[in-house]
Write a structure and sequence with these properties.
2 copies of one chain form a homodimer. Chain A has 229 residues and is of the alpha/beta class. The first copy, chain A, has helices spanning 11-22, 34-40, 55-60, 77-89, 102-111, 119-132, 162-165, 167-171, 219-226, and strands spanning 3-7, 26-31, 46-49, 68-71, 94-98, 115-117, 139-141, 146-152, 173-185, 191-199, 212-218. The interface between A and B is large, with 57 and 55 residues. The structure holds adenosine-5'-triphosphate (2 copies). The site of one adenosine-5'-triphosphate (ATP) has 21 residues of chain A, from helix 1 and strand 2.
Chain lengths: 229, 229
C-alpha cells in the first residue's frame, strides 16, 4: 500500500492526517512542535518531532521511502519552500503543498510540487458556487474525459419518451435524472417555483419543455448535446 | 435576483466576492480596512468601509435587504460572533460564516448561522480523499438523498447482461459505468494492473467478476445494493 508523510500539523495538516488514517492509510506525521506531534500520536503510530528543513533527520525517519508527501506549513514560506526542495531532491514521487499566497504557490510549482492548495481561496470558490447553484449539480468531472452535467432539454427531445430519444445509442450519453419546475402558491398567496426530480427515469417518461436533464457521458458528446436544437 | 453581502475581505472573503461577481451576482463587499475595500472595488461596484459590528452603519448600507450574508472574519472571533448576531436579528434569511475553530463554529450555529465553514479542515479532508481515491469517484452526493458511488458488482450480477439485471426497475439504481481491471505486461516484463472503463454501457454488456460499477441512485437503494450477494 502507499505510504504518506504529512509535514506540518496545523488545522490543514491534522485534517489530512485524520482523513488518511480513517481510510486505513499508512501515515508519518511530522511537526517541529512537541504538542502537535503529541496530539497526532493519538491518531497515528508514526508521529515524530522533526525540523523538516533538516534533510538528515528526514532521511533517518525513512521519509525518502514515502510515495506521497503533503507539506502543510503555512506561515513560514521559506521553510515550506526549503522542505519542498528537499523532498523533490530525495526523489519523492508526489509532493503536495499548501501555499500562503500565489507567489508562494508559483515557487512551489517551479520546484515540482504537483498540486498547490490554497484552502481559503479554494473554499471561497466552493462556498460561493454552492450558493449560486440551484442546479442539482453544476458540473462534476468524473475523469479527465467524462462529466456529469445539467443540460437544458433540446427542443428535439420535447414530447418524446426516453426510449424514443435513445440517448445512449444516438448521443452517447446517459440521462440519469430529469428536473422539472412547477409553480406552487405558498401560504401568503405568492407564486413560487419548485423543482421536482425524476431520478433514474423510466424508458416511458416523456421529456417536457424546459426540463433540465442530468446527463453523464464523455465531454465531446456533452458538447454535441448542448448544440442540439 | 438574490443580493449577497460579504463581510471581511481576507483571502476567503475576497474569493467569495470574486466568484459571486463572476457569476453575475449582486454583491456588497464590506471590510473595516480601506485597502481591502479598495481592492474589492475593482471587482464590485458596492464596496464599503464599515465596522460591521456597528449595526447603524450596516443598516445605512441597506444590509438588512440582502438575502445571503457571508461573514468571513477569521481571527477576530468576538467580532465574527457579534456580526452574526446582528445579522440574524436584522432578519437576514441565510447567514454563512467561517470559523476559526470548533468552539467558534458551535457558537455561530447556536446563533442561527446556517452553514459554518472551516476552510483548512474542509480542504484537508478533500485533499486527502483525492489522494486515496483510485476509484473513478469515491462518492459524490448529488443531493441530500442521492449519490454517485462505485460499488463492487454483486455475485448475482456476474455473467448477466445489464438488460437481464434490469437494475433500474429491480434495484432503483442506474449503472452509468463499469470499471474492469486487466493485467498487462510493461516494457520491463512486470505485470501491471490497468483499468478499462465502459462508460454508458450497452444493454447487452455482460458483468464480469470483480467489475466495479459506477452507480447513481437514492442512498437507500445504494445501501441495499451493497448488501446484495
Ligand atoms: N520546519 C518545520 N518543520 C516541521 N514543522 C514545521 C516547520 N515549520 C513549521 N512547521 C509546522 O507547521 C505547522 C503549520 O504551520 P502554520 O501554523 O504556520 O500554518 P497555518 O497555515 O497557520 O496552519 P493551518 O493549517 O492551521 O492553517 C505548525 O504546526 C508548525 O509547527
Ligand atoms: N468588525 C469588522 N468589520 C469589518 N471587517 C472586519 C471586522 N473585523 C475584521 N474584519 C476584516 O475581516 C477580514 C478577514 O479577517 P482575518 O484576516 O482576521 O481573517 P483570516 O481568517 O485571517 O482571513 P483569510 O480569509 O485570509 O484566511 C480582514 O480583512 C479584516 O479587516
Amino acid at each position: 500500500g502507499r505510504q504518506f508523510a504529512v509535514i506540518g500539523l496545523g488545522q490543514f495538516g491534522m485534517s489530512v492526517v485524520k482523513t488518511l488514517v480513517a481510510e486505513g492509510c499508512d501515515v508519518i506525521a511530522i511537526d517541529i512542535i512537541d504538542e502537535k506531534v503529541k496530539d497526532a500520536s493519538e491518531i497515528t503510530a508514526h508521529a515524530v518531532v522533526i525540523d523538516a528543513t533538516e534533510e538528515k533527520a528526514l532521511r533517518m525517519m525513512g521519509i525518502s521511502n514515502v510515495d506521497v508527501a503533503i507539506i502543510c506549513i503555512g506561515q513560514n514560506v521559506q521553510d515550506s519552500i526549503l522542505v519542498a526542495l528537499i523532498l523533490k531532491e530525495m526523489g519523492i514521487n508526489t509532493v503536495i503543498a499548501k501555499a500562503l499566497n500565489e507567489l508562494h504557490g508559483k515557487v512551489l510549482e517551479k520546484i515540482g510540487v504537483s498540486k498547490v492548495v490554497y484552502p481559503e481561496i479554494d473554499m471561497g470558490v466552493r462556498i460561493a458556487r454552492g450558493l449560486i447553484s440551484s442546479k442539482i449539480v453544476e458540473q462534476i468531472e468524473i475523469s479527465s474525459k467524462h462529466s456529469i452535467v445539467e443540460v437544458l432539454a433540446p427542443i428535439s427531445f420535447v414530447g418524446k419518451t426516453l426510449r424514443k430519444i435513445d440517448a445512449r445509442v444516438k448521443y452517447g450519453i446517459n440521462i440519469i435524472a430529469i428536473k422539472r419546475q412547477y409553480a406552487k402558491v405558498d401560504d401568503q398567496g405568492n407564486i413560487i417555483q419548485k423543482d421536482i426530480f425524476d431520478i433514474t427515469p423510466a424508458a416511458e417518461d416523456i421529456i417536457a419543455k424546459d426540463d433540465m436533464l442530468l446527463v453523464f457521458g464523455n465531454n465531446d458528446n456533452i458538447i454535441k448535446l448542448r448544440s442540439l436544437k
